[in-house]
Amino acid sequence: MKAVRVSLEESESVRQKLISRSALDKTRKLVKKNGFIEIPITGYFNADEFTLVVQEKTEYYSKEKTISSILNIPEIEKKLLPRGWQILGDIIIIALNEKLEHRKTEVGEALLSLYPRCKTVLLDRGISGQKREPLREIIAGNGTETILKENGCFFKLDTMRIMFSQGNLAEKKRMSELGEDETVVDMFAGIGYFSIPMAVHSKPKKIISIEINPVSFGYLKENIALNKVGNVIEPIAGDCTKVTPCEMADRVIMGYLNGHEYLPHGISALLPGGILHYHEAVPEAIKQRPVERILEASKEQGRSAKIIGMHRIKKYAPGVWHVVVDAMVD
Ligand SMILES: C[S@@+](CC[C@H](N)C(=O)[O-])C[C@H]1O[C@@H](n2cnc3c(N)ncnc32)[C@H](O)[C@@H]1O
Predict the structure, then answer these.
(1) Residues 172, 122 share a domain
(2) Range(s) of the domain holding residue 39
């Protein structure tokens, strides 16, 4: 866990400075060590002007508290409380049983007291439409924009308006290890979920990142700047059926779960021998469907595809898996 090391005299002024930058980790205690004070900071804080240390021993405030122990509600309602929630940067996102709707403010406040470094709690009601827009409501605190760090990359987003999946971390890591010296097209780029880690870690020649949702596109551009990869990523606003270039990519990422109708565009973007990463939500009973769709769409363009990999990413719904199929298209 990271901390900033300061002298006793300057500790209060630095602590205030960290608070004003939302960088103080309020879940951990200040620690005195070798005549210095270690002030705990949040993971994503870039502290060039301070001495950073990694603490061997971390001390937390109120470890034993749970939302159930904080809330003063009947036992029968406590049984309906969720056991988990998502934390993106300093925002908590929670889904509630509809029978607890009338307790949403109390639940939100309880979570804020459990995580003092967080500023807002959002109630999540799912995701809608082609642009994958979340349906969310503030139930405690305020401010919905945040910056989170994942796999050495920074992602800025408005959690009220944009989704951020953490269930596909392994796939994002895998993508970050591919693409060196290549030309890549990311047809459903979002805020840069795959494009940014690939640009940061693999140094492709170029990534063309296409996004239709103007809000996501705005953050994609901000994240390119934040991660200093403007020399690698070319962001394009628009519909990938209209703006995907032809026969120029060594690799194409199709990270959209209902993307089968876009397959012809993904395939035609590839140079002979190029690699396609095609995502789909697939019912268990028809698990060969994405493979058949890739083979069929390639054949329709007079090309042939060889399946070189298939991975389950996460459970999408009962009996339905989010999978990614890798294919080489000649
Ligand atoms: C599911 S999100 C990105 C998912 C991301 N790869 C992840 O793992 O979390 C898919 C993105 O594709 C965008 N999108 C949907 N249809 C599109 C289209 N026709 N052209 C370009 N972008 C599109 C949506 O706005 C959304 O930002």
Answers:
(1) no
(2) 2-54
